[in-house]
Amino acid sequence: MLEGLPMPQFEPGWVWLAGAGPGDPALLTLASVHALHSADAIIYDALVGKDILSLARSDAFLEYAGKRGGKPSAKQADITLRIIELARQGKRVLRLKGGDPFVFGRGGEEALALVEAGIPFRIIPGISAGIGGLAYAGIPVTHRDTNSIVTFLTGHDATGLTPSAIDWPAVAKSSPVIVMYMALKHLVEIRDCLMEGGRRADEPMAIISQATLTDQRVLETTLGEAPQALADSGIEPPAMVVLGEVVRLRAALDWVGALAGRKLVADPLGLRHKSDAG
């Protein structure tokens, strides 16, 4: 598949920090597939599936270094030291992360550590779940009839708490669409912060679980009802949360649902009716 394409050479002693995308192996970049075919050692995260790892060389060394909230997880310092150790052994080390390594993936931290250690590295971007996962749910992050601004934020900081550094009133007032990573644990607090900042309780919200995979689930709700709807649904992380009028577009753009027989609705925002009335 990659024959004839000008792929970079994966040299011994190098570390490639690559994004594996939101889950569906079909969304891997060609550079990431090339890295999987070439690496001697692969240090991978919890969101990297077996189908993706099956693309590794049969003699490659695979090591799990996943982080999941509320569960035993590898410490970041230990992961970084392990990457450096393997590179200093002359191995081609692939650090494989779900989504994009530089979008809430701590790839920047690991790359800075490699610079300090004198280890050469390459960054391979991946499709972030905040974009690709929403696209599979039929929700565009931007649409000219709803928003020209979108904010991406994380639902918890390094302490595991709701980020105190976020200016929630400013985000609530300035961004028509807010896409939230790792937000389920603190959804009640996040909802309250956004509503205190002026967001409507009836504003549409969606929660996408197992995005892009065969067991993907999409919960459509509202900001005010989201915590109870989430509890009733039984959805657990990993999941993306999106708030804004773009959620209404799913009625027309749920292409995955259409494959399963869902009838799509034209003009979900009611713009044609408003235009005719005018």
UniProtKB/TrEMBL annotation:
Every Tetrapyrrole methylase domain range: 15-226
GO term, biological process aspect, one: methylation
Signal peptide: none
EC number of the protein: 2.1.1.107
InterPro entries: 4pyrrol_Mease (IPR000878), 4pyrrol_Methylase_sf (IPR035996), 4pyrrole_Mease_sub1 (IPR014777), 4pyrrole_Mease_sub2 (IPR014776), CobA/CysG_C (IPR006366), Siro_Cobalamin_biosynth (IPR050161), Uropor_MeTrfase_CS (IPR003043)
Pfam families: TP_methylase
Keywords: Methyltransferase, Porphyrin biosynthesis, S-adenosyl-L-methionine, Transferase
GO MF terms held by the record: uroporphyrin-III C-methyltransferase activity
Gene3D superfamilies in the cross-refs: Cobalt-precorrin-4 Transmethylase, Domain 1 (3.40.1010.10), Methyltransferase, Cobalt-precorrin-4 Transmethylase, Domain 2 (3.30.950.10)
Sequence similarity: Belongs to the precorrin methyltransferase family.
UniProt-recorded name of the protein: uroporphyrinogen-III C-methyltransferase
Species in which this protein is naturally found: Fodinicurvata halophila
Gene: cobA
